[in-house]
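Office hours follow-up: a student asked to see two folded examples consecutively, so here they are.
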Amino acid sequence: MNHKKKQIIDAAQSLFIKKGFTSTSIQDILNVASISKGTFYNYFTSKNECLIELLQLIREEIVYERKHLETSKEASDKSVFIKQIAVRFHIDRKHNLLALFSSLPTASKEDDELHIYIKTQYLQEIVWIAERLTSIYGKFIKKHAFDYAVSLLGNLHFTSKVMYDVKPHILEVETIINFSLSQLDNIINTHSNDKPILFQTEYFHPYMEKPNGSIKEFKFEMKQILANLEQQINHANEPKTSHFIDFLYGELEAQEPRIFLLESVIQSLIHAFEGSDNEKNARHLLTLLCYMEKQES
């Protein structure tokens, strides 16, 4: 990510949490980021767009952490799923999203784009949970997967709230997720395809992530990112990072790139850039790779 853009997003995030989204003006962001109004509008058309970009970056962080967990064990392992759900809780806490969301205005015509984005995010979370439940319990629950996903999410959120109210200092996210999942186990153990379905799969079709582009376009964007990263590293001091970039570029040139190798090397690249401005660009490579996988399937 461009350093100046990151500077703006970081300033905006701190202000949204400290003052609230509504109370933060664009001038406040300019003052904290030490930039001109023209610089801000080079990157964002509005404060809403700035927040959407921030939320998208956080989402990519969640996607990366969840994907990383899947590489260590089978995706059907319940312990992996528990950790993956916990990722959202931990990252939301890290970025203080509860405080940020509580300061958002109610939906209005002016804020439609922002509220649509947030609604899409949580409905995509339900889609992800439904897909994961199917991979864990088996395809025989597929028709009811969204019913089970909504039940799990509802149980999880309400249980978390009650636990926070009665014992705020011993809130163990993984314990609560495990408890909620065990409740779902009891329901699925009595599963029957004759059960009525409340949440039909087609209700969620608009929120099932469909990569907007072709494999060729995703490859091209990945190569652009790699070229940009290559320009910013010191080849003499960072030979391993340079090797990662060269390997990824070469693999993307292949007629049939090996996805598992690309994923492994991209994760090494993310680790190499950890803590730097380039970490988010490296993570975006993983997002694009996921899009390629979906287009191939």
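And the second, which I mentioned at the end of office hours:
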Amino acid sequence: MPRVLLLLALAFGYALCHVSPPMVNGRPRGGLIGGDPDPEGPTTEDQYMVYSNITQYVDHFSNNTSATWLQRYQYNSKFYNKTVGYVFLMLGGEGAIEGSGDKWVRHEGETMMVWAKEFGAAAFQVEHRFYGSKEFSPLGDQTTESMKLLTIDQALADIKEFINQMNKMYFPNDKPIWITFGGSYPGSLSAWFRETYPEMTAGAVSSSSAVHVFVDYYGYAINTEKTYRTVSAPCAEVIRTAFAEIQRRAYNGADARTLLKGTFNLCDNFDETNLSKSIQFFLQNIYGYFQGINQYTGDNRNNATRSGLGVPAACDILNNAKLGTEVDRVVAVMNLYDSWYKPSDSGCRPNSYAAFVKQYSNTTMPDDDTISTRSWIWQTCTELGYYQTTDGGNKGIFGSIVPLDFFADQCIDLFGPEYTLDNTFKWIDQVRTKYGGADAYRGTNVCFPNGSFDPWQDLGHKMNITNNNVDSWLIDGTAHCADMYPARDSDKQSLKDARQRIHDHLARWLSDAQAIRQHSSALCGVAVAQFGTDNCNQAQFLACNSKLGDFWRTDTTTAWKDLATLDRITQSLIVSPYTIDSWVNVCNGFSAFYGCLGQAQIRNCLGTVGLVGSGLDLNTAYAYQGFIADWDFKCGVGFWTMYERKVLTTCVESTYVNYQQETAAALTSYQTAITQDPANACKYAQTLMNAWQNTYMKGPCRTVNPAQAGWIGCQSAREYSNAQFRHCKHTTTCASPSSVDAVTRVNAETGKTEYETLPFYEIVNDKAVISQAASWISE
């Protein structure tokens, strides 16, 4: 399935060296050829452009070979601002990026390049394995054995290695922030890369992608009919009449087929020895014209579509009875298409399935069209499916002309007997399960725009996932990847709004990632100011820790070396029947410990740098700070929320002790996510908050006051995560009770944010009372 602008075929007037169908499994004639001879908007000057290649492993997942190949890329440095470090990557797909294929990173009117200029981003495009020329291919041939290295997993690993090499080559000290872009199949890659390697990027734009890989995609024909019918219902009925008549003639004897050859200007006679396949090939090719016209209708992708090649123009022809019969009008539509994309040197149309199989069985990589088409068919046979059948029923305007076995037979004919339909179903199911399809996608920070006229839309992601910042929507009145093309004043308002919607997501992803980048860069320089020092008085710390153990009547010797030990200690202190004094005992222990240390040593010993200085790794130090912040909340605002609502005391304590498995699992997922992808920490923090909230709501408190209990769980997670990612307090939220004071305040005199220290509680007549008031300290 082709991607925007790059997809239709050759610029008008250019002849192919062999005949080629208008569409092959959704991929237009000529494949990805790059761009127009007359790009809209300025073109970046040569001095900013790099055309080069890197060395990639042929097989990223094998320990038995170290073979390498050269992968091409293009780099535009014109707008790069190293202060912010933004980098945009356009992923290559079903065609070579050479020649005018550089449009995505050189033509400054393309949507990604407009945003690169605005945000100060470098721009790259990288070529997909097995779609470049022979010398830039993993093995230099396309035998079935070699093609086994053309997989989604290998392509994603290529992208990861590409980013790593570019970082070392061009941005060694910049801490760059990457965003991937792609449309159609590269759009799916963009989403899958974000899901598979979230630590590599801050977000992904996945335009008109078909992430829900599927074998028998008859929805393509249904959506194609819907577009023609939306533009003109009479037009759709002309198509129905014409296709029924064409099919009747095709099966009406050899003489009738000879007449069809003349009517449709076919290069080849029908193969009377393999008639069924020959007629299927003929009918599929006619249907392909209507596919190609619909797939890019109204898009600003090239001179053809800008000049009106689309469904409205086709319907104008089909509705014009002066042009002859319905069949004559179908031929006229095909002539319109061929006026832009010549089908062969002589202008005749291919009609030999045998010649088709022979051409794309060539494994020597003789030309771009053969290379790209063979690779694309391989991918549809082994991992994508995408067979555009007309199996949706006889009521469709195209009839039941293209059955599933038409595509299944291609796999066997081109790659061998093991590539059966049963295996294709099995392999595609495995891919859909692995990446989640459209129903269980697991990535974060992803946009999924699709067009309402796009026949691929039913395989796209359509479900918004707020917690993961995944936004999916249909752009009314647009087709395939319309958001990626240069903007025009005449664009539909829905398309203008879509570009703005993507832009706003992009701005937010970059802003969040920038906050992390600046925080990381500043850590060493301002550690003393923000996170304490490593001047911890170890003798005092050990003495105070001993007192903590005496207070709690437990061994705390390793409590500040092994967080799991400290966690188990606090759990053990909350005992049945879960009264308030258990909670007070834990809080008083912490208060006594902090009081022994004093404010200076709290910062020196328990600050990030102090914890690392004691021998902990940075992630563990942050985990300790989260744990401390959580208990600051539990012994502060959280304590009073629970105490003032006495019915919550028992159920909240019971949840804390008895639902550790659930909360710990959510915490582990959070820690894994932020380690791999710190740029999106706030999103993962919100996920953690939601998980803890659900646990507290659905546990013992579900019959007491689930909303209040859920707030306690959510706010505990919020304090935990904010200890490391302070900027997240601006974006993460819990529904706080109106009677609860804030955990922080701004000092009116100094203007600084202050944090509440722990009060000291005592039990008097079975009630918790403050014996030592809380105080506020500056950040």
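Two things to take away from it. The chain has three domains: 42-213+441-513, 216-435, 532-778. The first strand starts at residue 23 and ends at 24.
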